[in-house]
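hi got a favour to ask and not much time before my train. below you get a single protein, a line of residues and a line of whole numbers that encode the local backbone shape. could you go over both lines and see whether the tokens make sense for that sequence. a few lines back from you is plenty, here it is:
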Amino acid sequence: MTAAPPLPSDGWAVSTAPAGSYPPRSRSRRTWALTGSIALAVLCALLVMSAGGTHGGEHSTFPSAVQALAIVGVFPMLAVSVLLIWRHRFPLLISILATALTVALPTTPLPALVALAALTAARRGWVRWTMMGATYAATIVSFCWDVASETSHLATLSGGSAEGSAARLALFWVVPILAALAVAPFAAYGVTRQIRAERDTARRGNVTAARNIAALHQEVSIERERHEIARELHDTLAARLSSVSLHAGALELQVGDSDARATAAARAVRESAQHSLDDVRSVVRVLRNPELHTGAGAGLVDIPGLIDAAVREGTDVRTQMFVADASACSPSVAHAAYRIVQEAISNVRRHAPGASLSVDLRAGPETGVTIRIVNRLVPEAHPTSTGGGNGLVGMSERAALVGGSFEAGETAEGTFAVVAWLPWVGR
């Protein structure tokens, strides 16, 4: 037994990605990013140890207190270098730690610069500018420690001037410029990365907006078609059914008691036209206001009345109905069962007039709703009307909409059978 199929999704999607967030990456890209972060952390750790050996080694000319500070400072800087692996997850915290330690300790500014690149990619406003200024100041301090040391990397790059010489002392005036040149690429990289992330987010938002607009256009088109169908039904079919009901009523009054059979036939035509007119008006209301449709209508409890009406109109119907609790069944399933029985009886009266038929309906929570309608084939029968070929298709669609199954066709016994099964869904 299967349950009713779930309602389809409306297909609408809204982009909620914050500005500056990174687009989702594939597993291979995440692996490469993690590998690069680990390699960058190892490089920072090596430079930290190199700076500690330069400022705190046996060849250092700094006072012993500074040498001890340089050696001790290696350990927290190594910890910060390891934390750089998670710099994109905690950019502000790691940037503050790296910058503060770079200011307080004679060490390399690379961890602070790397943390700054991650922070400028994730933050904006005063936080970004404040940390850029703090990192710039920390870089100046670090470069000053380097210029003051006996083995200066900056002095080596500028010609290898000796410690205490005029050329070495002149480097102190160049340090702010060198610090700015060092900070600028890392800050620019972070800003560029943020711009790219915002661009990707905007593109995804545009795609989502285009999809939503297309869905909205489709919904508007469907709404227009519904209203057009409602107008056509009201202006043509409803008007003609009203005319049929009016003429049948006039015929019933005209015949009176002179011909009981003609009066009964006219009354049957009038009642059938009136019922059909009520159904058409109900369909028109639903087409114009789909939210009014609740699946309610004729159901299992109305099938006996449907069969009685067919018998009164001269159709030979033999019925077996076993329903556990008709009122407990879902209105949509019960209505589908009613319409299948109604259409099957109409098909027999239209295509095999005079043929007898049997209706076997069994319904319950354990077994579902099983409908079997069989009529004998009448080769010499002439159809009373020409159908559009939509009766069997409509019954099949009704069964499929509630999650059931449908079969129809000739049997080896020379009969035509309609068999449908619908799942029992409680109210």
